[in-house]
Amino acid sequence: MSSLKEVLILAGGLGTRLSETVPGIQKCMAPVNGRPFLFYLIKYLQGQHISHFIFSLGYLSENIIDYIGAHFTQLNCSFSIEDSPLGTGGAIRKALTNSGEEKLLIVNGDTFFNVNLSALFLLHEEAQADCTIALKPMKNFDRYGCVDINERGQVKAFREKQTYAEGLINGGIYTLNKNAILRENLPEKFSFEKDYLEKYVAVSKIYGQVHDEYFIDIGIPEDYFRAQEELKQFV
User: Fold this and answer.
1) Which of 185, 207, 226 is nearest to 37 (CA)?
2) What is the predicted pLDDT for the residue at 14?
3) Which end of the chain has fewer CB atoms < 10 Å from its terminal CB, N or C?
4) CA 231, 114, 175, 173 torsion: positive or negative?
């Protein structure tokens, strides 16, 4: 069986909720034990045998380009830079011009989820899915929406953010068939989550796989400070 070789890292966000804690930088460049959060993400993906990295950038893109050039000199990578914000979906579609694969991994640049990518890709292939989402079981939360799947792993519904006693959240890691986005008549600027996943769930083959593994999203100060200690295990 073939394996995932390529990743698209979404790193164009402004980092608004972290701006007072780490002002003037993107979330993925926020320092964690003296290294940017992005360092841990790249190391994890290299360990899962990803061989080509595509970085989708916008705000202060030169900071990330300079960091990669200085600290990952052997990294096989390319950069897709937004002139103005395109939303997660628009950013993905623009960056796909840098992709040489029909299927690729997509991850958020401010999230670390210790997923077994081989297992995720196996389900994607076996189900002949358009998109397969890594799902994280969580309890007592209100920061995320919920994802409902059937016994085969096909996503049946996305539920809005509210207080849940328990449920599965979208962990921000996807295996995507490029054509699943390119074939649809989507606007230049759109949300991958709202305008593709949620709107097309009834007509596209969108699957989810549960990974009860370490997960952190540094989008809020509380979790950013927690990452300082917890991410040491992945160095």
Assistant:
1) 226
2) 66
3) N
4) negative
Q: Please write down the long-range contacts of 63-69, taking CB distance under 8 Å and 24 or more positions apart.
A: 63/25, 63/26, 63/29, 64/11, 64/26, 64/28, 64/29, 64/38, 67/29, 67/36, 67/38
Distances (CA, A) of 213 to 134, 150, 167, 227: 10, 21, 15, 15
Segment 61-118, tens digit of pLDDT: 999 999 999 999 999 999 999 999 999 999 999 999 999 999 999 999 999 999 999 9
Place of tokens 């079981």: 137
- For the record, the structure tokens of 119 come out as 């297992």
pLDDT average, residue stretch 169-195: 95
Q: Indicate the burial class of 221 (C-beta count within 10 angstroms; 0-12, 13-18, 19 or more).
A: middle
Distance, CA of 44 to CA of 136 (rounded, Å): 17
Output the six-digit token pair for 187.
Answer: 């606007």
**Cα R_g (the chain), whole angstroms:** 17
**Confidence tier at 16 by pLDDT (50, 70, 90):** low
Both structure tokens of 200: 């097309």
Q: Which amino acid is at 119?
A: A
User: What confidence tier does 13 reach under pLDDT thresholds 50, 70, 90?
Assistant: confident
Nearest to 235 by CA among 22, 77, 32, 25: 32
Whether the predicted pLDDT of 48 surpasses 70: yes
Rounded to two decimals, what is the model's pTM? 0.95
Q: Which residue's structure tokens are 């992709």?
A: 99
Closest Cα partner for 181 from 105, 92, 101, 55? Answer: 92
